[in-house]
Amino acid sequence: MATTTALRARNADFWARAAPGWIAHADHHDDWSRPLGAPALDRLSIGPRERVLDAGCGCGGTTADLARAVGAAGYAVGVDLSEEMVAAARRRHPGVEFVAGDLETMKVVRGAPFDAAYSCMALMLPADPVAVLTTVMNSLHPGGRLAATVFREQSTVPWLPAAVLGAAAHVGALPPLPVGDEPGPFALADPARTRKALTAAGFDTIAIEPRDVVLETPDDPDAVTSWLIGIGPAGAAYREAPPEAQAAARSGAARLLSRFRTPGVGYRLPTGIWLITAECA
Ligand SMILES: C[S@@+](CC[C@H](N)C(=O)[O-])C[C@H]1O[C@@H](n2cnc3c(N)ncnc32)[C@H](O)[C@@H]1O
């Protein structure tokens, strides 16, 4: 098992290399991936004048939605490890506040205390989930609420391995696959581990509920496969590959994703997530 320091460096390197793919696909990612965060946003039901934090905000689409919800008298801030993604978020959403930094080592987010914290598909990625949750906890008011989503086990997210496997044979080396509890898309698939991390960080009123959502896209195999490859573990290798290898990677992924496609209608990508809610003690 790699050390926390090594895993932290691996995570930082992964997101530095992944950032251009996320930035290139940011607009349709916001649109097509919305169901991944929607249960947490619904649960938080953010209103005017609230102060809210978006932990692992990526290119900032949801932070901008939160900024609209809190209005001029409230405050929304997105935090992300990737400086490039934060720079893109600032370009995409002028006037919205973003902070580049590592939630594992930040201790408290600038602008604290917050009434609420939101996170979509980010809490499973850092080397030490307790450290990230402690930063979030330190940044909330007593009684402040957290709502977050993470993937359930891999079998409930069948499109993710399909995109990686379809592309992998046609591009260069992929980053190391996570072993055991190492950070990665499925590192918080076990709700017992998540509950333990939340408790260790000091949260209470913890609930972890399964949700089945479906990502819907237009019937555009080239756009959908380049999005799914581009934001996934094969994204950096795909970007560095020559055009003919990229085309082969897209058609490899399209073949494995065809079971989710209705020609003339689009893709429906079934996804199992956990909706995690908790309160700051
Ligand atoms: C899968 S993306 C999700 C982005 C966004 N929430 C969304 O739903 O589109 C995960 C994000 O978490 C960020 N991240 C990973 N580890 C982090 C850390 N230790 N501190 C802050 N952000 C982190 C990554 O840079 C990435 O933008």
TrEMBL record:
Domain Methyltransferase: 52-144
GO biological process, one term: methylation
Coiled coil: none
UniProt keyword terms in alphabetical order: Methyltransferase, Transferase
Lineage top rank: taxon: Bacteria
Molecular function (Gene Ontology), one example: methyltransferase activity
Record's protein name: S-adenosyl-L-methionine (SAM)-dependent methyltransferase
Species of origin: Actinoplanes friuliensis DSM 7358
